Amino acid sequence: MWLICSGLMSLKKMTATPKAMGGYFELALPDRTHDTYSAALKYQSARSAFLALLRTCRPQRVWLPTYLCDAMLAPVRHAGIELCFYAVDAHLGIATDITLASTDMLLYVNYFGLCDAEVDKVLARFDPQQVVLDYSQAFYAQPRACLATIYSPRKFFPLPDGGLMFTAQPVEPAVAVDERSLDRMRHLLRRCSETPESGYSDYQSAEASLEEDIEPKAMSCLTSKLFQTLDVEQARIKRNANFGVLHAALGASNLFEIRAETVNGPLSYPWLVHDASLRQKLIAERIFVPTYWPDVRTRADASSWAAHYADRCLALPCDQRYGSEDMDRMIKLVRSWIQ
């Protein structure tokens, strides 16, 4: 028996790929292992993680908010499951009177990372084991005791792709590994070496590739390594500080009620205004505010809160790339337009 084991060990040594040494340099990436996320299932995107969950749980219907990116509708349609929509209210809570059947699933979004109180209401109102929390905009919010919590760290950091999911469900790990991350790096490198404008078409191509490639795959080696380099705590501190500056200056004019004491690493500063034309004025000053989300108008009434947020919520950047001078510049500009 010892001879057999010894022989197997010798064979393993002979067939194992030796460590590469010398030649050209790779990127020198620091390792800041994030224990908080080590237990997560890792996919190429949040939508792929959702699809893997749907295939495991097999609900008959999935309830989704009208105020939602089409990216999270695609997994439900791909799985051949019935879609139902609910409306959101002024606080981005659930406005529709819903009674979940035992075979239903409900997805709720922690919008901008500012809706923890609404998450509490959702988990108190429905069976938590029927609730999926979409934390794509709430990277710093802790996973909750529910069916699943899904994250999209590339919304917060310079990553080409990637999705994380916490769940107790027996979701089978993805066998195939995503191999397209290198192709999705072009916009990140272009913005680093050129301008945001020059890399925008590459950004759109990267997004389109994730829409095409929805089949669940394991997070790529590149994205995993890049994720481990991130100083997530320093980013959280800067986001909070920048958010505080904006809220102190613009809170009185913000139609979205924010509980400032609960802010923790927000996605952006959601400034809900009456004048939708301010978006184009900001973009003309190279302050790029995304529209969350253009496709909302296809399923929400024009008078609904979902439509109001899609049209008039300006997601002002307050992330870790910026400091107080950048916040002051935005404040001076918008004040000159609204006075």
Task: Please explain how this structure is put together.
It is a single chain. The protein has 339 residues and is an alpha/beta fold. The protein folds into 2 domains: 36-180 and 217-226, Type I PLP-dependent aspartate aminotransferase-like (Major domain) (Aspartate Aminotransferase, domain 2, 3-Layer(aba) Sandwich); 232-338, Aspartate Aminotransferase, domain 1, CATH 3.90.1150. The chain has 11 helices and 9 strands. The chain has helices spanning 2-15, 46-57, 74-78, 116-125, 186-193, 200-212, 221-228, 232-250, 278-284, 305-312, 324-338; strands spanning 41-43, 61-65, 82-86, 104-109, 131-135, 148-151, 163-166, 269-272, 313-316. The strands form 2 sheets. The protein has a 7-stranded mixed beta sheet with strand order 1-7-6-5-4-2-3, sandwiched between helices. It has a two-stranded antiparallel sheet with strand order 8-9. Strand 2 (61-65), helix 3 (74-78) and strand 3 (82-86) form a beta-alpha-beta unit.
